[in-house]
Amino acid sequence: RILIIGACGQIGTELTLKLREIHGNDQVIASDIREGAEELMESGPFEILNATDDAHIRKVIHDYEVKEVYLMAAMLSATAEKAPMKAWDLNMDSLFHILNIAKEGIIDKIFWPSSIAVFGPTTPKDNTPQTTVMEPTTVYGISKQTGERWCEYFHRKFGVDVRSLRYPGIISYKTLPGGGTTDYAIEIFHEALKNSAYTSFLAEDAGLPMMYMDDAIKATVEIMEAPAEKIKVRSSYNLAAMSFTPEVLASEIKKHIKNFEISYDPDFRQSIAESWPSSIDDSTAREDWGWKHEFDLEKLTTTMLKGVSATLKTQN
Ligand code: VAH
C-alpha cells in the first residue's frame, strides 16, 4: 500500500485523489496533522499523523503494510521565514524518519518534493540548469537543498530508492494555497471572480517558474512509475512548464474578465521571489524519464477560472 504524509496540503490533496484513482481507494492511506477536504476524507483510509513522530509513522506503515511513502508535509517559504527552527525541524526530521525506514528495508520507495527554492540569488536566473550554483537564502530553500543532499546520500550509500522533483510554483483550485511565495497566482483567480480586482504581493515584473497542478501530479506519478535505472538524478530533478509575471497573468485573466484590475503592493515575499530563478531548464527530466508538460498559461487560466467559479458557487 501507499502512505501519503501531508495528504491535506495543496499538492497532497490532489496527489491522494489521483493515486486512489490509479491504485484503488483502500490502497492509499492519507495522513496529516489535521483533517482535510471532504473529497479526500471520504474516499479512503485516513490517519491523523504528525510527520515528525517516528514511532507513529512506523506503526501506520506496519499496520497498513505500506511499501511506498510520499512525504508531502513541509512548511513552505513564506511561513518558514516566520518560524525558522520549527520549519527546519518539520522539513528535516520528517525526511530523516522516512529515509531511515527505507534504509531498514521496511518500505521500498519514497517520493520527496524539492523546490525551485533550492536556487538562490547567485544562481543563473534564466533557464536555470539541473546542476548549478545553489546558495538559497530562505529557510525553506536551505531545508530543501539539504534534503536533496541527504536523499542522494541515502541512495548512494544504502541503495534507498528515493525520487524527487524540484516543483515550481503550483497553481490549483481544489485547496487554498499553503503559505508559499507563489500563492499570489492562486489568490488572483479568487479575487478576480469575486471582486474583479486584486492587489499582488509581488511586483508586476516578478517572473517565476509556474505549473498547473495536473502537470505536477502527472510528473510525480511518472517519476515514481519509471524503471529505477532511468532515474539517474537522485538529488532532485528540475521540472518546468511555463514562467510568467503577475502582469502577464493579469493580462491573460483580462481576456476573460474585461474589467479586472490589478494593483501591486510588494511585501516580504518580493525579496524571496527575487532570489529564485525566472525560468528552469528541465531537459534532464525530459531525457531521463520522458517528462513533458501539457498546460500552458492559456489552458491554466481557463481551467482555473472554471474551477474557482464552480468552487465559489458551492460556497454561496
Ligand atoms: C512556495 N509554492 O512558494 C512554494 C514553492 C517554488 C514555490 O516552493 O514556497
TrEMBL record:
Source species, domain of life: Bacteria
GO biological process: L-threonine catabolic process
Domain NAD-dependent epimerase/dehydratase: 2-239
A molecular function GO annotation: L-threonine 3-dehydrogenase activity
PANTHER family on file: L-THREONINE 3-DEHYDROGENASE (PTHR42687), L-THREONINE 3-DEHYDROGENASE, MITOCHONDRIAL (PTHR42687:SF1)
Homology family: Belongs to the NAD(P)-dependent epimerase/dehydratase family.
Protein name: NAD-dependent epimerase/dehydratase family protein
Lineage: Bacteria, Pseudomonadati, Bacteroidota, Flavobacteriia, Flavobacteriales
